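Page 42, continued from yesterday. The earlier attempt failed because a stray header line got pasted into the input along with the sequence. Redoing it now with the clean sequence only.
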Amino acid sequence: MPASASVAYSTAAFRREREGDWQAFEALVERLERGSISRLSDEDLLALPRLYRATLSSLSLARATSLDAALVAYLEALSMRGYFLLYGVRESRLARFARFFAVSWPAAVRSLWRETIIIALLLALGTAASWWLVANDPAWFHALIPAELASGREPGASAAALRETVYGKPDHDGLSIFATFLFTHNSQVSITAYALGFAFGVPSMMLIFYQGLPLGALLSVFWDAGLGPDFIAWLSIHGTTELFAAILAGACGLRIGTAVAFPGPRDRLAAAADAGKQSGAAMLGVIIMLLCAGLLEGFARQLVQSMPMRFAVGGGMLAFWLAYFYVPRHTVRDTQL
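This time it went through. Structure tokens are written below.
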């Protein structure tokens, strides 16, 4: 018997023995693809995994015995369709969107708690260092704050002038220029701190430390004039969200840097890639937080002129973020990112 005839005979026999399972499985797959799963009977649902395994078994044998290419291609396509229906993601875009906010983002932030503490301490250290430098030598102020941003808010300015910048009219330049600078600066630093995390996390830590320098310098000026709480209240409206976002971005960068420095049994590139995936949801959330901070800076800061109300808005936002990220959720199980 010629080889081609033998192959044809083998293919025909193979089909006779197994084709019934393929056709039954294909019919179920087509019904599922049309979204009619509710119409499947209990027998069909029980048969579905059995028929899927039978199709995979047929594909394995067809490949091993070198049956005709058309049959192998048909079984491969049918197996792939069945795989995505049985094991693929069946959540809608809306469900995945809701899961990100309910589970993935808070879980990613909680997993970074060690890095978050380190970065927050570095930010506080930078703020305290610049405050101390300016308090002991006012000349440091001009080294830390560009002249075009100072605009009279500098050592030696009168308390009345400084108060006007905090409580002046909403359209008054005052600290608006500094607020815009601070938001742009913090956004750039946040993204850069994450992007440069691969360099063992050192640039991320340095950037966050540097971020506290202009803040501490200006705070020192207002504090010496007896307006420290007023300045903090003004800044807290958007600053609690904005600075928290910057801290989380630095924590994401530090996580990547730590993975590169201490990769364990993996190579450094694989360790960095895994750390990037783990912190990716947190960094995506940082962008959302920065957008929220921009809205608060653009509207709430100008509309709220009372110091207690400013503290209420800023403190309320901080309490919201802390509760959102760190209060345990007993009704939703965190999943690995």
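Notes: The chain is about 80% helix and 0% strand.
Reminder to self: strip header lines before submitting.
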